[in-house]
User: What shape does this take?
Amino acid sequence: MSNSIPAEVGMDGPQHEPVLLRELLEAAAPKEGEYWIDGTFGFGGHAAALLERGARVLAMDRDPEAEQRAALLRVTWGERLSFVRGNFAEMEAAAAGIGWDSVDGVVLDLGISSGQLDDPSRGFSFRWDAPLDMRMDPAGPVTAGDLLQELGEEDLARLFLVAARPGESRRLARAVVRARERGCLQTTGDFVTAIGAARPSRGRIHPATRAFLALRMAVNDELGSLERALPAALRLLSSGGRLAVISFQSEEDRRAKHFLREHLLRGAEGPSGAQESPEPEEGFVRQARFLPSEEESLRNPRARSARLRVGWKKTKEDL
Ligand SMILES: C[S@@+](CC[C@H](N)C(=O)[O-])C[C@H]1O[C@@H](n2cnc3c(N)ncnc32)[C@H](O)[C@@H]1O
Assistant: This one.
């Protein structure tokens, strides 16, 4: 369960300020002529910084609105910026589609953008009464409403577990089942009422935060996408390439951390360096974690829960 959840999580900051940008640029050091994938284009903040450093960028996003913004950025950056709409888990196919067989860097800035959150019609926020949608890709197969109507109580409890404690998850699941039996679970407002979160928040975290986060992550299969994207990125990176993952939620950060540690090469620092054979042909020689500076957290409260993990890849023969 996340121990550090801001008011609403998994998004970039106000004015779409890219989170942990300075740390990303210093650690991953994109260079002129390099090939980078930005799997979470959003408002293009990280992609623009990569382009300013002279890199070529393949940007991806599941949201068609991001595609429109990328088209505007292409006016400035021309053919150095490509955009493929889709899930970053499919980054190998996207890269192959534009003739790239390896890349120098991959950045994933997980979650949703403040633009998605602040659009009432998308249903990501408990601040408005809106349709229970929550799809990053509006053509995606499953909405939040579908899951709330169709999942059994145990599956609902498992769904909420990603962001809530077991007792709270079961309480949420029961509340959903009761509300739908009464036929009053059509909108985000109904959901807030059903889970008893309509009362004012006593602390910094609104009571609906964890339930909305868990539901959104399930609708978009966010953990599944990350699980598929991490090995895809490792395969695509050339020797010397960097993988950067920014997460806002503890379960995502845990998966990124474990992936980097599991693929640390023997002889590299860290606990997996001493792992048993077989010796992998490629992996990370180093991994590090970065947190937002106090200054960034003050300027942009939404950055407070962000974590950046970077892994530096090498193949065995380059060690
Ligand atoms: C936090 S925002 C990224 C903000 C961006 N780095 C910027 O500087 O503007 C996350 C974006 O990634 C997209 N996204 C999240 N998961 C995705 C996935 N599995 N595949 C493709 N896009 C995804 C969301 O639609 C959203 O636009």
Notes: The chain has two domains: 14-114+222-318, 138-219.
